[in-house]
């Protein structure tokens, strides 16, 4: 079976062959936004917020896709390695007259004796944590974008009523 790095390298190579230009988003330094007073912003400020929040959201969507891709690879490699370890352990226990351990005990033993499997499981856990943090950040930008968009919509609606 290929290693995780070999799989990732192959996927990256095929991904680059799609031949669609990638988006290069320049990330600005931290900004402080008083969301409580969005209604007092100028139209120009609102436009800037929409552009900025939309850009960050798009960037985070792409970043999340990369994390999800890695998660899938790690999960499949872990499961494959675990299945192989179960097979070997079952063979070992079948040759003895002892009672066969539970699936959970077999998994614990497999992780104890197989350092690659243990590392893959650790990477999977870390990847899941990263995914959840980035997803939360992406969701925050989604809410910010939607909030600014509602202010713009209200202003637009209000201006039409005055005409």
Q: pLDDT under 50 segments (min length 5)?
A: none
Helix content: over 70%
Oligomer: single chain
Mean pLDDT over the residues = 87
Total strand segments = 0
How would you describe the shape?
A: elongated
Helix/strand class: mainly alpha
Number of helices: 4
Distance between the termini: 69 Å
Task: Tell me about the largest β-sheet.
Answer: none
List keywords for this structure.
163 residues, mainly alpha
Briefly characterize the structure.
This protein has a domain at 66-163.
Structure description:
By secondary structure, the chain is an all-alpha fold. The protein has a domain of 98 residues. 76% of the residues lie in helices and 0% in strands. Helix 2 packs across helix 3, helix 2 runs antiparallel to helix 4 and helix 3 packs across helix 4. The longest helix has 52 residues. It is elongated and about 85 Å long. The mean pLDDT is 87.
SSE topology sketch:
Layout (H helix, E strand, L loop, with lengths): L3 H13 L26 H52 L8 H11 L1 H48 L1
Helix pairs in contact: 2-3, 2-4, 3-4
């Amino acid at each position: 079976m290929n290693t995780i790095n070999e799989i990732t390298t192959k996927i990256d190579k095929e991904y680059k062959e799609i031949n669609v230009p990638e988006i290069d988003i320049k990330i600005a330094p931290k900004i402080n936004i008083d969301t409580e007073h969005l209604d007092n912003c100028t139209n120009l400020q609102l436009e800037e917020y929409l552009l900025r929040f939309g850009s960050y959201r798009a960037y985070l969507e792409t970043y999340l896709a990369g994390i999800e891709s890695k998660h899938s690879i790690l999960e499949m490699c872990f499961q494959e390695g675990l299945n192989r370890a179960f097979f070997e352990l079952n063979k070992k226990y079948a040759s003895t007259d002892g009672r066969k351990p539970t699936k959970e005990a077999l998994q614990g033993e497999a992780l104890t004796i197989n350092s690659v499997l243990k590392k893959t499981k650790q990477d999977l856990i870390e990847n899941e944590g990263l995914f959840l943090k980035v997803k939360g950040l992406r969701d925050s930008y989604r809410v910010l974008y939607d909030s600014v968009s509602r202010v713009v919509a209200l202003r637009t609606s209000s201006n039409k009523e005055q005409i």
